[in-house]
From TrEMBL, chains A, B:
<dbReference type="InterPro" id="IPR036390">
    <property type="entry name" value="WH_DNA-bd_sf"/>
</dbReference>
<dbReference type="InterPro" id="IPR036388">
    <property type="entry name" value="WH-like_DNA-bd_sf"/>
</dbReference>
<dbReference type="InterPro" id="IPR002577">
    <property type="entry name" value="HTH_HxlR"/>
</dbReference>
<keyword id="KW-0238">DNA-binding</keyword>
<keyword id="KW-0805">Transcription regulation</keyword>
<keyword id="KW-0804">Transcription</keyword>
<feature type="domain" description="HTH hxlR-type">
    <location>
        <begin position="15"/>
        <end position="113"/>
    </location>
</feature>
<protein>
    <submittedName>
        <fullName>Helix-turn-helix transcriptional regulator</fullName>
    </submittedName>
</protein>
<dbReference type="Pfam" id="PF01638">
    <property type="entry name" value="HxlR"/>
</dbReference>
Length: 128, 128
DNA sequence: CCGAATCCGAAACGATACTG
DNA sequence: CAGTATCGTTTCGGATTCGG
């Protein structure tokens, strides 16, 4: 399968791929989507499980995904506050669409590291 | 298929997805990979077909992809210079892994636009 | 024709402190 | 608990200029 059932033959106009990458190509979106694929999660749960993300980036990223219709934000106005995030059907379809890429990454990361090492060891390797 | 054959259950350690996105999650990499999936291309051909990319970003992105073993760079030292770029087998497998995401994008972009419009029209929409 | 080098503005990101 | 506000740093990316 070299040219069928893919995202198009690339020869078409300005290409929508950029818009998708502008949405999920950031540092955290796909991580959050992936974690939410296991079920609804609360803010602090995500904060812990994504690990490395700051409060700010978690908030910002969640807002963006909510705006794009990838997930829903449900507020229970009690004390203490309780906010739950959950994938929409579109969010789950996105998760499935990104699965092959995540698979690919785990399968090829070692090879990529080797390629980089080989490249950097070449006589004509770039200085920095 | 809700949970099988995907990139893992998300519960594992710090997650490699970030490294992949650090590689192909930028603005241009996937576009270039997509264009190269049709066969080898020269620098100026890519410059024209990607359209919107600057010389600098084309050079930088191509170098990165070459370093990661996604594509090869072949120089024919003649006048005028002739440099050809071509996907490696790993590059082609990457192209296939990203195909579902590109498919998804073309299928859902309109719906996302609608979701954004609806979100922005909500009474509690963010100011900016 | 194919790039490298430099400069600069814009945007992303992170740490911290504060609020209901 | 679940954010918001502010600040400083880092990175991205475009324009321009120069070299082989």
């Amino acid at each position: 399968m070299s040219d069928t059932a893919d995202g198009g033959p690339a020869s078409e106009e300005p290409c929508r791929a950029r818009e998708v990458l502008g949405m999920v190509g950031d540092k955290w979106s796909l991580l959050i989507v992936r974690h939410l694929s296991e079920g609804p999660r609360r803010f602090t749960e995500l904060k812990r499980s994504v690990e490395g993300i700051s409060q700010r980036m978690l908030t910002v990223t969640l807002r963006g995904l909510e705006r794009d219709g990838i997930l829903t934000r449900t507020v229970r106005n009690v004390m203490p506050p309780h906010v739950s995030y959950e994938l929409t059907p579109m969010g789950r379809s996105l998760r499935e669409a990104t699965a092959p890429l995540l698979e690919w990454s785990t399968a090829h990361l070692a090879r990529i590291g080797a390629a980089r090492a080989a490249y950097d060891a070449r006589p004509d390797a770039p200085p920095a």
